[in-house]
Amino acid sequence: MSKFPPKPGPISAKPLGILVGDVFAEAYAKQGFAARELVTRWAQIAGPEIAAHAEPLKMQWPRPVEGQPQEPATLVLRVEGPMALEIQHSADVIVERVNRFFGWNAVGKLAFRQAPLSSRARRRVRPGPPDPKSVAKVAESLGGIEDDELKSALARLGAAIKRN
User: Fold this and answer.
1) How far apart are CA 97 and CA 61, in angstroms?
2) Which is nearest to 111 in space by CA: 141, 87, 138?
3) 73-79 and 107-114 beta bridge pairing
4) Is residue 88 within 8 Å of 50, Cβ to Cβ?
5) Strand ordering across the sheet containing 54-60
6) Dist. CA 96–CA 63, nearest whole Å
7) Exposed, middle or buried, 80 (CB in 10 Å: 0-12/13-18/19+)?
8) For residue 19, what pLDDT band results from cuts at 50, 70 and 90?
9) Of 128, 150, 153, 160, which has the highest C-beta tally within 10 A?
10) CA-CA distance, 153 to 145, in Å (whole number)?
11) HSE (CB half, 13 Å, CA atoms) of 156?
């Protein structure tokens, strides 16, 4: 008998993307996405400017009519509130980029839902109060204001604006 245990066989590790690909495929299919690449590669498809403020939420496919060709889908985008109008003006560009990615006329129009982006789950950190030295420097330039509370508030505001 040998003192050593038998050597283990070869390790057959599989990439995580392959293992979880099928798990997410059903979730994407429920939202109308035939392929997850539209969601996972959104920044490359739409461009970084658009992707910073909008993300695909779902695709709504019209019911097929027998004997008629399939009509293009409506791509529903989640858009940050202040940028909704700007993104709406870029709708033709977005539709063109998405259809170029798919290689066929998959999307005919866009619909927008104003909401915070899911990729922005982390909270933005609010900056602290402005530096007292810069507040004092701004306060010096406000000599004509007699109300001390107003002068102090304007000095803090001015210092915060200069900081940013």
Assistant:
1) 18
2) 87
3) parallel
4) no
5) 54-60, 73-79, 107-114
6) 23
7) middle
8) low
9) 160
10) 11
11) 8
